[in-house]
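Human
Can I borrow your eye for a moment on a structure tokenisation matter? Give me a protein, with the fold worked out from its sequence. Write it directly below this note and I will take it from there.

Assistant
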Amino acid sequence: MAPYESDDATVAAQDEDPRSGRRKAVRYAVPVAVVGVAAATIGLVPALADSGDPDLPRITAQQLIEKIAKSDVQQLSGTVRVSTDLGLPDLGGLQNGIAPGASQGSGDGSSADPQAKLTELATGTHTLRVAADGPDRQKLSLLEQGAEYSLIHDGKDVWGYDSKSNEVYHSDAAGSGKEGHRAESPATPKDFAEEALKSVDDTTSVTVDGTAHVAGRDAYRLLIKPKQSGTTVGAITIAVDAKTGLPLKFTLTPKSGGDAVVDAGFTQVSFARPAASTFDFTPPKGAKVTEDEHGSEARDHGRKPGGGLAQGMDGAKVLGKGWTSVVTFDTGSGSGMPSGSQGGDLGGFLDSLGDKVSGKFGKGTVFSTRLVNALITDDGKVYAGAVTKDALVKAADAGK
């Protein structure tokens, strides 16, 4: 179906109105995070649309953004398929040492800690079962081959259970903060859409790109495209349920073309209230239970004394604007990544992953994915963003 008219001007104008629904929609953060030596992730997932486009009433991009912002679905259950392809190299035996979440988690590194477990969504294809019944009851299950990981929020309790290891994580929802029950990694189309909408400003083209069927529902397609050169983002498409305003599918494609970097979409969804028993959980007999009474606050505090990247992020600042903005911080180490013969086997491995660059900022190494580039300078500074390598070096030169 042909796209509807562009609403770029309307979106930009409404951004100045603090009373508009769009102000509510754009409060969400863009999901860019430097991971390990060369990885950064942003959430997305493929279309999964049925055949045939529904005939729906015309709607402007501004109205559709407001519809997403006002969506208040309290009860639902369904299945979500998430595929992520950042083009990361096969880390082989190093994966357990530097892969996202490998050394994170509560005190003893419980395999049931959601902070560590859900970072698995950063690579590959995964199937999730989700359920919600109001703000105090949610469940997300990550289905694996012969095993299942479940994260359950039921009132004051947050439970994580890894059936493979028979380990249980337990936290007080109040101790985890207002949003402590939520997964720290995006998992559903709604999570991804909320994060992406932060980028909708005067550097962005926003249109309604026809309609689609997703998981048996009629939906509008919101198309978000950067106007700026220098970004690696090609386009973001959000399929929005025509009746409820809930994002049903989120797809992000890189400017370089090819498959989506991340593609997440419902394959089945129901808005009926899930059975109360869905959120019941009792630790199985013999399971190892890890108590984390202070929730995410304690985990964050526990990482800071270690210094390095986590400590440096406290002083992070943003260079530039819109889609070409770059996050920078000083690790405090005074040096870059181990390199060459001085770094031993690890140094040689890292050299094979990155490209040596130089400029007014000095010298450093750029590590690239299909979406995010990260520059680590020889004096320990980090620059990262969804920008090209050349744009990253220019940002580092300007920030010097």
